[in-house]
Amino acid sequence: MWHSGLLKEILNNYYQAIELYEDKKKIIEHSIAANEVWLKALEKEPTKQQELAEYYFTLFEKKNLTKVSEHIALSMLNKKNCQLTNKQTNLFEQYRKLGIGKTAPNINFNQKNQGDLKDLKNLKNAYKLVVFGASWCPNCQTDYPSLIGKYKRLKKIHDLEVVYISIDTDKNTFEAYYKEAPFITFCDTKG
C-alpha cells in the first residue's frame, strides 16, 4: 500500500468523508482518532510515519483544522524513535511554542518599512495581538478584513497593537495583499 500511494489515497478519502459532518467538533474528534490509528500502525516505520505526519499536518493547517494539526505535531515531537528533520521539527514546534494562548517569543522585524520598530518587545502598547496568516488562506481572506474593521476601536479602547505575520513566500504577493493594513505586517518570505 505504501509504494503504490494507496495508503494516502485511502486516508485522504476517509478524511474527506469525515468533513461531511457539519459539526466542526465531530470533524476534529474523528480526524484525531484517525490520526491515532496510522500513527500507531507506523510506529515501527518512523520514516514513513514522519512523511505522513508532515503531509497531513500541512493538509489540516490549510483546512484550518489546527487542533488536528496540533495533535499530529505534538504526537511526533513526543516520540522517542523519531529522527525528525530540521524542517519537520520547526514545522511541528510551532504548536508547542506559538500555539493559541501561548506567549509569543520575541520576533525580530528585519524589514525597512517598520521604521524604528526592531522587534515585538519594542512595542510599547499594553496588549499585543500576534496574528499568523497568508494571502492564499481562505479563512485568512475572511478574517483579515474583519480585523482591519475592528483594529481602530481595539487600539483606542485597549491600547492594543496588532502584528500580522504572513507566511506568504512571495514578496510581491505579500506587499500587494497587505498594502492597506493599518497595523504592523511582517513577512520573511520563508513560509
From TrEMBL:
Gene3D superfamilies attached to this UniProt entry: Glutaredoxin
GO BP terms: negative regulation of protein ubiquitination; negative regulation of Wnt signaling pathway
Segments forming domain Thioredoxin: 98-191
Superkingdom of the organism of origin: Bacteria
Signal peptide residue numbers: none
PROSITE patterns: THIOREDOXIN_2
GO molecular function: thioredoxin-disulfide reductase (NADPH) activity
SUPFAM superfamilies: Thioredoxin-like
Transmembrane segments: none
The name this protein goes by in its record: Thioredoxin-like
Species lineage: Bacteria, Pseudomonadati, Bacteroidota, Flavobacteriia, Flavobacteriales
